[in-house]
Amino acid sequence: MTRGALVLATGAAALLLALAARAAETAPPALRWGGDAEGGAPFVEADPADPSKMRGFDVEIAALIARRLGRTPAFVQVAFQSLDQSAARGDFDIGLSGIEDTPSRRAALAVTVPYYEFREVLTVRAADAGRFHRLADLSGRRVGTLAGTIAWDALVTAEKRDGIIPVSYDDDVHPYEDLAKGRLDAVLLDHVLAARSVRRVPGLAIQPTTVATGRYVAILAKENAALRDRIDGILMDAMRDGTLKGIFEEWRVWDEDQAAFEEKMKRKTQPDAATSPSPPSKKSSLSIVLSYLPSLLKASLVTITLSCLAMALAVALGVCIASGRVYGNAAVRFVLTAYVEITRGTPVLLQLFVLYYGLSSVVRLPAFVAALLGLGLNYAAYESEIYRGALEAVPKGQLEAARTLGLTEGQVLRLVRGPQAFRLALAPMTNDFVALLKDSSLVSVVTVVELTKQTAIFATNIASWAVPGALCAALYLAMSLPLARLARRLEGRWKAASA
Amino acid sequence: MSAPQSASAPFLAIEGLRLSRGATSVLNGVTLSVARGELVALMGLSGGGKTTVLRVVVGLEGFDAGTIDVDRVALRPGPPPAGESLKALRARVGMVFQYHGLFDHLSVLDNVTLAPMHVARLSRDAAESRALALLASLGVDRLVKALPRELSGGQAQRVAIARTLAMEPPLLLMDEPTASLDPARRNELGRSLTRLVREEGRTLVVATHDDDLVRDFATRVVILADGAVVEEGPPGKVLSDPQHPATRFLLQTKDRRRREG
To answer: Which CATH number fits domain A285-498: 3.40.640.10, 1.20.1270.60, 1.10.3720.10, 2.70.130.10?
Structure first.
């Protein structure tokens, strides 16, 4: 029986190897194309019928390009915010994921001809359709969009001009859900996304006014200009022979504006910078840095405030959990141990998602509160372990001596055990605070713009990580180093007092 | 030197005290009675149950069977006492541990004033003047600002005694108080203990291996072996003419060790 299975398995393996070898011989070279399938419909999304396959109009355009290049398309999943850097690194040959045509992209990458023109439109709750027509109507209100997009820039401009409050998201699904739940009053995004979201989320309405227009392009590494030129030819041909129109019609994103756009493209031999939104910035790098510095400092303030409050929560809760685990009865210990193990054993990212999005049907936490709770509750588990260890490290002889002197259990904890445990816990606590400071960058998933997120926006806008990355690192160090110093001084003082 | 035979009831009365840990029987029916103003030495081989008797009397451990009465406070078999009976017990009994258990984060002075301030509710001034007097009587008043880790074993031992005495317990239990003292210091400590008994009317039970201390200062010696009292009487008689084989073995071992040392 066993031998039979073994023979069968060996045979199957051999067959697979042979097939793979054959496939390698005959298959055309792959065209690796990058996109983000997370909430990526109708551009790129996992096929609900077979999640291992991708579908969407960008998928079909990629297939079209590959076919006409005589290659096989191979999908590479890349987070939307990282597509530019990933293209420049050569993780894929071509990026297609509803990528906007911007001056900084043109400066940093090889960009194809635009293949689709979109309109930035405002989506509001149907009940508000009568009063929120334009950004100017939304003074003092929260308006969401994808970070690092043309729409985001428009919101930042409107923040100064109209007093709206921009809220950044990493994906295009959650803004509409938050709009329906009342966390936002409007969403500014491409009409393609808006139309799809309004079909999916009930109670929303798209305003007819176009806030801005933009175009989707495919991106390649700068050194791939030759391939880009071939792809430009393929895209223009596909416009002329109606293949593109067919794809867009199939995905229900074809309209009169699109027909007009294609006509315009077909008439021109050289579609380019003249039609692109604005010429690349000629500002000096110093003035660019200076222009971003205020927002980076503001984001640092968010980071440090959030970290301090979350740590305070973690310490307070950690002390309670540790005391409960050291002094509590079996039931209390079981519940607290379960809390610690579950919290430590699951990613803080998941906990943030659950708190902000998962619980939103029960309790609608503001983003900052969700971030604070997420980090605080998570770190409380780690702090409690430190305190528990520190409490248990205080010699039993001292506790017994204190008890025989007549101190109550509470007094023993407050006067003898606690103060010594605190000194033992200080060094690991400082470590944790520095870790928390860095983990606070995760809260951008619940729309809080902190230092790392702001840096990413900065880097996306100027299409380089060098200067923003260095600035960001310097700001983190400026926050964490004094803290480490303070902790060393305290430890030093206690040592000196006993020397 | 003879034991003052008080006509009143004993201050500490232990009868048929039994305690097992798992399958091991630690105390096998200890019966012991200590009158007010006695300085009783508990002797016996290590593991004979001396420390356990002290820990049970001070309320750190429960026991399985028997009775204990400390100045009209009765302890029952079962887990260690709690609530009012624990409070009453604490007011009567203090203990000095072999490994002294000084609070590492507090100075010598703060070690001694902690309980008077937080348990007896004395003012800081009152607690400090009491502490200074005690530390001076034990010869360690120069060290008030020092932290425990800076003390020698003998200094720490005397600070621990001062800390316990600061609560003025009528019954004082001591576990190996001379373990870290040289002979001169040991005699000094012995005189201090005698003063506590004669001048302050306290009652002392001292677990020790130190037969010189016992011979010179104890009013009575009690020999524990395998968790029971096997012999007791005036130190001069018991130590020079031991009746029980366990006592003889204990003293022989000591003599041999002394000759070899």
So the answer is: 1.10.3720.10
